[in-house]
Amino acid sequence: MQLPGLRLLSCTFFLFLMNARLLFLTGLLGVATAARAQQLNTAKLDSLLTSLATNNKMMGSLAVSRNGQVVYNHAFGLAQLAPPVPATTATRYRMGSITKMFTAVMIFQLIEEKKLTLGTPLATFFPQLPNAKTIIIDQLLSHRSGLHNLTADAAYLGYMTQPKVQAELLAIMSKYPPDFEPGAKFDYSNSNYIVLGYIIEKLGKQPYAQALQKRVVAKAGLQSTYYGGKIDPKKQEAFSYKPTGSGGWQPDTETNMSTPGGAGAVVSTPADIDRFLEALFAGKLVSAASLGEMKTIRDGFGRGIMMMPFQGKPGYGHGGIIDGFQSLASYFPDDKLAITLSTNAHNYTLGDAMGDVLSICFNKPYKIPDFAASTFAPAAADLDRYAGTYASQQIPLKVTLTKEGGSLSAQATGQSAFPLEPVSQGVFKFDQARIRMEFDAAKPSFLLKQGANTYTFTKE
Asked: Which parts of the sequence belong to the Beta-lactamase-related domain (predicted)?
């Protein structure tokens, strides 16, 4: 979940438009080899996480489990800035939309108990919601209902930190006209899973928090997973932070967890999320048939679960953003490998960080990025020459470069501007999205490099 809008991490080229993206989901890293993962290079993982924390790129925790055993569990950075409290492997993070996997599991448990079906109309529970007679449970699970995403509107920012009861949120959702007819298309909406959480409460006659404990936590043997409340450092819960713009961190907002509910209120640790994924795929939470329904993918999303491959290896999981927290969790059934990365501060794309981790876990060629600040100062005349608007024949996008102080800022069409850091003569970077721009000394053009992609932009 992400603010504003608690939006799903999505898979698209436009990573560098200031949004966190799952680069490794696109499969752009090539075709996988048949070799299984060998001995885990824990020293390289240590080096990567230490570099991220030392250079104020990220703080959080990473857990890697194989065959049901934790093979790597490492925290980096701080759980709290003032007074400073180092993060540990016991530190708990708000998991955002990873909650949706838990909610989907409980819905399928109720289906197996014959308390509802994928075809049950929403009107059975909440007839006041738009299109309730034609929306079915399947469409809520797969984000194909057309219910408007309440967290996508500016009004949400006015009440996100305040407690809300079910009746209030249902009233808010009832006011929005549907975005499209049920089943017409996929469009991620947190409203779907907030409503599913309410259905779990109605059918089970108990709060979501209690259902979570009974139906998932106890069955999977989780130790640090629960419905969150106000952040409490006495429970080893991390606070979240955002970049200051000067290389440091400042406190981020704190959403009241009464609103995200079944869409994003779970608090946990990476090791516990790994354990949850292992229990799910081992048949401890739902039947093989139900898991198959969850894994049926359309438009990149199944029913509460996302397709998350890496270099051709099939993977399943979910991402989550809420306030300054970001998490990614993925399970690779062929390798019986579960990996969860959770952060409470980031100035580096989470998808890239997870791609780094996966490259190490699967023993792919990988070099830890150099995050050291550059001391290179470009000439003012060069900055004047670089400034302008550029277009590419490869993608329908324009980028405007503006001289600011001793460097440049970049702004893509319809997006916010972001600063570029000078690296060397004609070379600039933006680490948060792993962008590198290389200007041609003879032509008014530059190469934009991001991951394995290179695009040529020419000044208009």
From this structure: 61-347
